[in-house]
Write a structure and sequence with these properties.
By secondary structure, this protein is of the alpha/beta class. It is built from 14 helices and 23 strands. Bound molecules: flavin-adenine dinucleotide.
Amino acid sequence: MALTFSRAPDSIAAPFIRTASVPLGPVLDPVECDSKLPQRVDVVIVGGGIIGVCAALFLARRGVSVALCEKGAIGGEQSSRNWGWCRTIGRDLRELPLAMESLRLWGGMNALTEAETGFRPAGIAYLCDDAKELAQYETWLGNAQDRCRDYQHIARILTGSALDPVAPGATRRYAGALHAPGDGRAEPQKAAPAIASAARRHGAAILTGCAVRGLDLAAGQVAGVVTERGRIACSTVVLAGGAWSRLFCSTLGVTLPQLKVRSSVLRTNPIAGGPETALWATGFGIRRRLDGGFTIANGHTTWADIVPDSFRFFFRFLPVMKMEWTSLRFRIGKRFVEEWSEQSQLAPDRPTVFERVRVLDPEPDTALSVGALAAVAKTFPALQGATVAQHWAGLIDVTPDAVPVISPVDSVPGFFIATGFSGHGFGIGPGAGRLVADLVSGDTPVADPSSFRLSRFLDGSRIQLESGF
Ligand SMILES: Cc1cc2nc3c(=O)[nH]c(=O)nc-3n(C[C@H](O)[C@H](O)[C@H](O)COP(=O)(O)OP(=O)(O)OC[C@H]3O[C@@H](n4cnc5c(N)ncnc54)[C@H](O)[C@@H]3O)c2cc1C
């Protein structure tokens, strides 16, 4: 079989924003890819983000024949643009068992992939300004421990001098923190490529620059996929398409309520000192990078473009919008027109929008990220000399209850969805990929999948928001 190195077309070779003052930053680690389309496999995975590659790895390790089709580059969208936090703390309690399993899997991921994913169990803490905030985290911790007996020793509340090792040299006193010493961080630009390469060593075909235009159905069941490079016969398809999943589902008449928000990030050049624990605080989120710099963002503000789906799904998203109201900024711009026209660019026999937009590369709100860096430097003087190496942004796909869909689609036998990770799918990716492999293979699921079923949005059930706070 002829091999090529995954190299996106020139237009997407550098999927990150560059400006005159910001030099080209790290690119995704390379992935050796397959140039030849297999004629038939058991399972086709649509999307090579963290969810798709983890599903491919766990399926391939079970001897299932897999082809993973990625329209752009492995990890090119959300999975390389995130903060790299692998956390159990602060999760919606429905996700907690899967988050704990993911942490266990991350711990063995470098060995499993025989590569560097950047995973380090360096701890994560949420710093609290006042007693009210601390009480919320105490409530979350109590609820988490009630829900999962095994969670007893994973997270704790810190106050007073116990905070010092977590926030060394902080110029201000925090009321306390929710801290999980074993939660960790991984490198988004390394992890998905490393896992894809491992899946390939286990026999999965990894196809980049290979958009899936749609499903091929026979008597209503999955019989294959139509890609831009030809057809692959299969009896099972897993859609792990991130922000594109709703559009893909619409070609099958399946309604997946999903919207997108834009979040901006910066990374600094390497710098000595500063916190090793990843920290969330008013005004900033920060985590140490493997290259010695920091990834920093203001996680309290995200942009929501008003698009046709904003109106379609308005009432479904109303509860979560009310909850997140203070952190959302709305704008109407060219994305409205772009998304309006997407529906007309979906046909199996000609290039689709999936080929036209190889990598979603939204414009970052640099002022927001620079503000976060300033807030960090005020709290941690060690970062006062930090210089910005790169800015970027990502479009986060969200569901109405901010919990993913990991589920078969009852109306299309053979079709599964694993998407809607609502801004926290990187850390939970390994567990989610394992759960996908269980559902597809009919094995005992590693975690209860009932909270993740698609039908929760279809059967008129009340949207459940369960942050656990
Ligand atoms: C700024 C930011 C910060 C974040 N921070 C964190 C964090 O610290 N921790 C955390 O856990 N999560 C975080 N997240 C969320 C996390 O990145 C996502 O939840 C996760 O990466 C989603 O993975 P995915 O595989 O579902 O989607 P993606 O990574 O978006 O991958 C989907 C892939 O599918 C491909 N695709 C779509 N349609 C087709 C098609 N028709 N044919 C072929 N390919 C297709 C796309 O090209 C894409 O590569 C953050 C996200 C952002 C943007």
